[in-house]
Amino acid sequence: MADQTVEGSPGPIDKVTDIGRDIGEYIRQQRNNAKISLRQLSRLAGVSNPYLSQIERGVRKPSAEILQQIAKGLRISAEALYVQAGILDVPTGGPVPDAIRADTGLTERQKQVLLDVYESFRRESTAAGNTDDPSDPPPPRAEPTAERPADIAGEE
């Protein structure tokens, strides 16, 4: 049975075109944020200038390999481009990863580094058997003593 669409609603071909346009706009935005020209990105990514231009304009939909090369040229995570292109689902997270991803003051590269560090701490904590409830209050601070002056005890 052929795909049927209601008049005015996008069909499968339109959806692919939208994905191509979305990823192209995203790449252009990241390139502009990085303050590099189309030619510079073309050289850095090893993708021809005309092809990269077609991707940015939504005329071509890049493969995962091309997205990886572009991500390398932009110095952002390939995962970010894969999610934008619809190749990967949006990663699950929680309040901390969601806040990092939502921060418009960070570049994609900075977000990825923060997420990597956060996840490594989570894995380390889990491996050590630390299952503290994050809503538990922090342990009490050490009080200053004669052997432990205020600056060492964490007091100012």
UniProtKB/TrEMBL annotation:
Keyword DNA-binding attributed: yes
Molecular function GO labels: DNA binding; DNA-binding transcription factor activity
Matches recorded under CDD domains: HTH_XRE
Stretches that traverse the bilayer: none
Domain of life: Bacteria
One GO CC term on file: cytosol
Alphabetized UniProt keyword annotations: DNA-binding
Domain HTH cro/C1-type: 27-81
Entries under SMART domains matching the protein: HTH_XRE (SM00530)
Signal sequence annotation: none
Gene3D superfamilies per UniProt: lambda repressor-like DNA-binding domains (1.10.260.40)
Entry annotated with the keyword DNA-binding: yes
InterPro entries: Cro/C1-type_HTH, Lambda_DNA-bd_dom_sf, TransReg_Diox_bact_type
Name recorded for this polypeptide: Helix-turn-helix
